[in-house]
Design a protein that fits this description.
alpha/beta; Rossmann fold; 303 residues; 12 strands; two-stranded parallel ribbon; 39% helix; 8-stranded mixed β-sheet; 11 helices
Amino acid sequence: MKKNVLITGGTGFIGKHMTDLLIENGFTVSILSRSKKENVADVFYYTWDVSQQKIEEEAVLNADYIIHLAGENIAEKRWTPKRKAEIIDSREQSLQLIYSVLKKKDKKLEAFISASAIGIYGAINGRAICTEKTLPANDFLGVTCKKWEAAADRVGNLGIRTVKIRTGLVLGKNDGFLNKLLPLFKWNLGSALGSGEQYMPWIHVSDLCRIYLEAIINPKMEGSYNAAINDDTTNAIFSKTLAKLCGHSLWLPNIPAFVLKIMMGEMAKIVLTGRRVSSDKIESTGFYFEHKNLEETIKICLP
C-alpha cells in the first residue's frame, strides 16, 4: 500500500513541485486547502480554516508523513504591525491546529517536516557563515522563524521525528522571486539593490523538493537543515548574471537603499541584507545538489 504524505500549502509554488515529486516516487498526496477541490489520481483534497481552528481531521489521521509549507508570504505586503502579526500567526496557528489533532487522536506519524527559512539568522549583512548551530537573531525575521520552529518542535515532543528546512531564495520557472524580476531585466531596466554586496543564498525548487523527500525517506534526519547553495552569490552577482542571460549588461546605477526603504518600508530588509549559510549538514547526509551553478540554474528557469 502506498504511503500518504499530507502537504499544507500544497497548492503553492513549492507545494505543486513537491506533489509531482512524491507521486513520481510512489506516494499518494493529501492537500489541505481553504476550499474543497475535486480529487484526482493519487491526490486527495481536504479543507481547513486556520483562523477558525477547523480542519478535516481525516487528512491528518490518514497521513504517514506531513510536510508543512503553509504560512503567509513574508514579502507580499508592507510590514505593518498587523501584517507582522498575520505572518507569525499563520505559522504558529496552522501548526497548532495540526498538533492538536495529532495529540488528541494520539496519531503517530513517521515524520513531520516543516518549512523554515534562513531568515532565522537575521536581516544582517556580513561574511560570517551561518550553520544550524548559529543562534537565531532578535529582529523580525529571526523571531518569526524562531517561533515557527518552536511550534514545529511541539510536534517533536509527541515522539514524532521532526525536521525543519531552513530555505533560501527559491528559483524556479514561471514563479517565485525570479518571476517578479524578469520583466525589468528583459527590458534592460534591471539593477542591483542597495550596495549589491548583500549575500543571496539560493536553491532551485527541484533541489529543495528533493531535500524534503530525503527528510521523508532518511530516518536519521532530524532537527534543522539549511537548504541553500553556499557559493557566495551577492545581489550584484545575481543581477549581473540575470542581465547577461536576458541579453544585456547592467547599465543603470544600483537602486539606493533609501529609495527601497521608502517603497517597501521595513520589509526592504529582505532585499538589502543577506547572510551566508553553510550547506555542510544537509550534504553530510549524502544529499547532493543537482543545481549548483547560478548561471546554469537561472538559464533553465527562464521562460
